[in-house]
Amino acid sequence: MEVTHYKDIDETVYHEKMNNGLEVVYIKKGGFNKKFVTYTTKFGSMDNDFTVDGIRHQIPDGIAHFLEHKMFEKEDGDVFNKFSQNGANANAFTSYDRTTYLFSCTENFYENLKLLMDMVETPYFTDESVKKEIGIINEEIKMYQDNPGFRVYNQLLESLYQKHPIRIDIAGTLESISEITKDTLYMCHETFYAPNNMVMVIVGDFDTEELFEFIRTHQDNRNIEVLKEITHHFEVEPKDVLESVATTPMNVSDTRLMLGFKYLESGEEDKYNEAKRDIIMMFALDMVFGAQSKYYYELMNESLIDESFNFGFSAEHTYGHTLFTSRGSNAKDVVKRILEIIEEVNTTDYFTDEMLLSQKRELLGDYLSSLDSPEYIANQYTKYLLDGNNLYQVPSIVDGITLEDVKVTFKEVLDPKYMSESLIVPYE
Amino acid sequence: MKINETTVNNIPIIDIRTDKFKTFTIRISFRNTLDEKTTTIRNILSRMMIKRTKNLRTETELVQFLAKYYGAHLTEGTTKRGDSHIVNFTLEFANERFIHEDLNIFNDLCEFLNDILTTPFEYTDEWQSFLDQEKRLHKNKLSLLLDSSMQRAYINMLNIMFKDEPNRHMSFGKIDEIDSITLEDIMKEHKKMMEEDEMVVLVVGQTTDNNIKSLEKIYSRDNYVKLPFNGFNGQVSNVINYQTDVEKIEQAKTILGFRIDKKQADMMSARIFNRMFGGGAASFLFMNLREKLSLAYQIHSELDIKNGVLFAIAGVDFNRVKETEIHVMKELEKFRNGDFTEEFLQESKNQFLSARLDAMDKPKGVIATLYGHFLAGIDFDYVDEQLSLVTKESVMNVAKHTHLDTVYTLTGGESNGSHTL
């Protein structure tokens, strides 16, 4: 077992790889009542085309999410109920690249941990239960269809990307989920829920040896075949966007705009630099468009934006984009001004050392505040770990960011040549 | 965790001392009776108060000031509780212990909070454009909220169920009242809030006696203000209201509004009943309507016990609205008949305790719990004692005194005749 103490932030992390390949991380939070566990497989909505054991599988869209729903149902009933009987709250979510099962509790921890491991490791699907789930998920899809924020986002991804599976809704469509059978579910489970494709993160206040011994014994008893090599197939995503403008009418009081700038890595960045780039972009965007900037108040005073104005950057190996959201009938003017501001920033000495220092201070304050939350730690530690990084490296990454990094990255990532507008407009 | 309640400058201070957080959170709460005439004004006022002060004259200056203190977060919010309207100001910031810079963060931010409260404004005409902007922003915030079809359904439901009762008002006010608000309205309400509202300061974190001394700088009052804390007294009716509205949406949102006879049902049993009925993933509504019948993806119940109101809320297919209503009533009937196990009751009580422990791991959860205790004049021992008195019979009793009042549906399809039951 590897033990790392981060003195500056007073956090201790224990890490061990089990004999079957499962990675287990324990983060100690002294004095906390709450115990929080995430059990994550590297199987998300993007993994819809892969080869395993020499056979290529092209599976229906939305299957990772469907599988997540189905894992809670077993021959002897619903596992939600059992967690509840043990005083725990259980949940799960599926993202583009992973599925996470989690629970939190303040009592009966080991019963709940066993329940979580058994639930995730032991599939049980029948034709009948698959059919029933289609009904529930279809209502979930419809619920999102009534949500303008979700619609404007999905429409933007469909416009920015030509081939990448990120353009497909995580839940799939009624047509795609109707194709799912119990056999496809079993195959996906066997492939992606193998221990060496999974990570467990535990946050709370435990006796370390007792905790690891419990997990070791459970995992050693599984007798499972591991190490199936999975090859993912992605069509190469062109740099160009598919559509520059997409519009859908909905029952909204005012127009919603989401403006996206596509950015694909030119070569393979190393993991550390990817994490660094994410933080640099967060800083850069905030310096230009955040509440401390002059531009924010210009836009606000011109009544072009309101408090719903937001922005963010998100990137992985195979995709990347910066998004701006705004609301109001003047979407065209907002786009025009954003482009002018980007141009102005790139052609003047806009960024200053003082701004960067302020960003660094703010981030460290927010970071400390996040470390008060076991949920945040478990979820973010998992994300950083799966991306090949370490959540507790954040202060040192921040330390190393220079003004030059900010200038260069801002210019490189926001290229108006690769831009799409997604609009949700009120019915006429 | 050590809780110490004192009064400083005629203001109650609740100091919650714990070393498990890396941050401090200070909450200042102002409470007064929910009044239709002032709710919207109080929302605009609280927005203005956190954006400019007499020392930090622009929003930029204020945001930059907070950034210097490692991104301290100042927020405002309004809520409705019982018959009260509450305005909260919350400041979260890092504990100096983790920062390698010589800053007296706690003390400086207490002085800053004084600046916020005694703000703004000379209330001269030059502030008019600031007010206009905040009015525009609040209007946009409310119209954005109404873009959610579930939220529209909920507000329509309140207006039908509580026709002439003040309980129909939302804590954030009304969009059509914003335009007429003047600087003078804001000024009057500010003065009134500072003098007449019940004010409480709560702080959670690794506080020291010096920190508590700094809290004195936040504000000083001439008199100690304590206001009564009650709920609205809605009347149980024998007639059920039905209304269905049609809009272009993909999924019907249906809400069943119930009134609980508060004289007949005890509050703690009602809380436990709500958990069992529709409060979570193990509840009857979730297990039976969602998991067994696949009727809905969203289905849950919400309780406002202080006002004796319970809602069952669902997102369902257009053609299954009536079926949903029938099944919600069937689940309620099970509780009236005692058709649930002692084990499930015990689990729900344990979940209640577990949720409380869980809340004590979050600074804002600690504050919300302790503020609730302050309002009700209770402590943890009292809550434990009340919980131990909840029995199968007392839960059945709550269900028996829970009466369907209104069924509201916002649908995108044809109404399917939800007019009789």
TrEMBL record, chain A:
User: Corresponding gene?
Assistant: albF
Q: Which GO terms describe its biological process?
A: proteolysis
The record's annotation in InterPro entries points to: Metalloenz_LuxS/M16 (IPR011249), MPP/UQCRC_Complex (IPR050361), Pept_M16_N (IPR011765), Peptidase_M16_C (IPR007863)
Q: Which organism is it from?
A: Phocicoccus schoeneichii
Q: Where is the Peptidase M16 N-terminal domain?
A: 61-173
Name under which the protein is recorded:
Zinc protease AlbF
* Secretion signal span: none
Provide the alphabetized UniProt keywords: Hydrolase, Protease
**One protein family per Pfam:** Peptidase_M16
**UniProt GO molecular function:** metal ion binding; peptidase activity
- Peptidase M16 C-terminal domain mapped to chain residues: 180-360
UniProtKB/TrEMBL annotation, chain B:
Task: List, alphabetically, the SUPFAM superfamilies matched.
Answer: LuxS/MPP-like metallohydrolase
Superkingdom of the source species:
Bacteria
Q: Which residues cross the membrane?
A: none
One Pfam family assigned to this protein is Peptidase_M16_C
The Peptidase M16 C-terminal domain covers 180-351
A GO MF term: metal ion binding
Q: Which PANTHER family match?
A: INACTIVE METALLOPROTEASE YMFF-RELATED (PTHR11851:SF186), METALLOPROTEASE (PTHR11851)
Recorded hits in NCBIfam families, A to Z, give: YfmF_fam
Q: What is this protein called?
A: Peptidase M16 inactive domain protein
